[in-house]
Amino acid sequence: MSGIYFHIPFCKQLCHYCAFHKSISLQAKDEMLDCLKQELKLRKNYLGEPLIRTIYFGGGTPSVYQPKEIQSLIDEVAKYFKIHSNAEITLEANPDDLTKSYLQALQKTSVNRLSVGIQSFHDEDLILMNRRHTGKEAFDAIRRAQDFGFGNISVDQIYGVPGLSMEKWKKNLDLVFELDIQHISSYHLMYDPNTIFSKKLEKGQLVEMDEEESFKQFNYLIDSAKKHGFIHYEISNFSKEGFISKHNSSYWKQEKYLGIGPSAHSYNLKEREWNIDNNYKYIKAIKEKTAFSEKEELSEVDCFNDFVMTSLRTYWGLNLELVRENFGEKFYQHCLIESKKYLRSAHLRQEGNSIILNDKGVFISNDIMSDFFLLKEE
């Protein structure tokens, strides 16, 4: 089974930390909706199979579209694919978009999972990040969604934010647990190039949080989430039993997916493809039926590196027997050698045929993965 991702490249306001492709001009919103449908038609054969297990609306801010417009995209998927009867259909939304009228209309669509960008319940943090909502609005939005029957809700939280004390971080998580939601995605603040935060950091207008303090906040997140019944199933993701994100898990399990919209990525096990990250150029290309994406055919080493990276991110880990089966003895022996020092240092542990990151290994996961990667000339 496969998944479909729609990238909705519009935001009403620019968050200072965000590096994703988006536009704060909504002028092309209607035109974009038509082009998303057209791209879906043009690429209906990309996955090579008709059964869709997940549909995910990400961005940007997908909730800039009204529920009937979101449903029109789901209906368009159903024209070219068979949607699984138990498909997970996720909509990312800003808290201030989840009004009573919006949720009432959304309740009538096929959307059955919400991913709500809260980031923090502290107004001073939200102002620093240039978010549109307040902490109270975020809390009330979740309660309102629950009142309308949404029982599969994920919230985003960011730690490592300048000025975010441990006391404030604990209060953020206390409120998350009080809401009794099913899923948490929590990320360390990144200073990605060309973001307002990265420019402020360069000018000395922001001071990056000390690594040790960030590590403490991450460890507290892990411990407290586990105490409240969450499974830490991926580096940045925690879920209650039965609520692991099916869509995101498809990325980590090397399943096929089709990305629709500007900057969206696709993967069909043989090649990766990515769309133009410019709204005007994307719309023009779709209308004129000219090239709107680039692609890369994957070598065996590329596939191995992807398998390592996605597997080590998760709680099921890197299965060494699958490495041997899919890539051969050379790759298997390479993994055995690279894993030894991290097993000794307790950054990794071995369970059966799999090697898995321990909590302290998660914090240096990029370094560990890099050591496992192979170069093409090897």
Key attributes of the depicted protein:
378 residues, alpha/beta, TIM Barrel, Arc Repressor Mutant, subunit A, 2 domains, nine-stranded mixed sheet, three-stranded antiparallel sheet, 15 helices, globular
Task: Give an overview in words.
With 378 residues, this protein is an alpha/beta fold. The protein has 2 domains: 2-251, TIM Barrel; 300-372, Orthogonal Bundle (Arc Repressor Mutant, subunit A). It is built from 15 helices and 15 strands. It has helices at 29-42, 67-80, 100-106, 123-129, 135-147, 166-179, 196-202, 211-227, 246-252, 279-288, 300-312, 320-327, 329-344, 359-362, 365-372, and strands spanning 2-8, 51-59, 82-93, 113-119, 153-159, 183-188, 231-234, 237-239, 257-260, 265-267, 271-275, 293-297, 318-319, 348-351, 354-357. The strands form 3 sheets. Strands 7-8-6-5-4-3-2-1-9 form a 9-stranded mixed sheet, sandwiched between helices. The chain has a 3-stranded antiparallel sheet with strand order 10-11-12, with no helix packed on it. A 3-stranded antiparallel sheet has the order 13-15-14. A hairpin with a 2-residue loop joins strand 7 and strand 8 (237-239). Helix 1 (29-42) packs across helix 10 (279-288) and helix 6 (166-179) packs parallel to helix 8. It is globular. The mean pLDDT is 95.
Concise synopsis of the structure shown:
By secondary structure, this protein is of the alpha/beta class. The protein has helices at residues 29-42, 67-80, 100-106, 123-129, 135-147, 166-179, 196-202, 211-227, 246-252, 279-288, 300-312, 320-327, 329-344, 359-362, 365-372, and strands spanning 2-8, 51-59, 82-93, 113-119, 153-159, 183-188, 231-234, 237-239, 257-260, 265-267, 271-275, 293-297, 318-319, 348-351, 354-357.
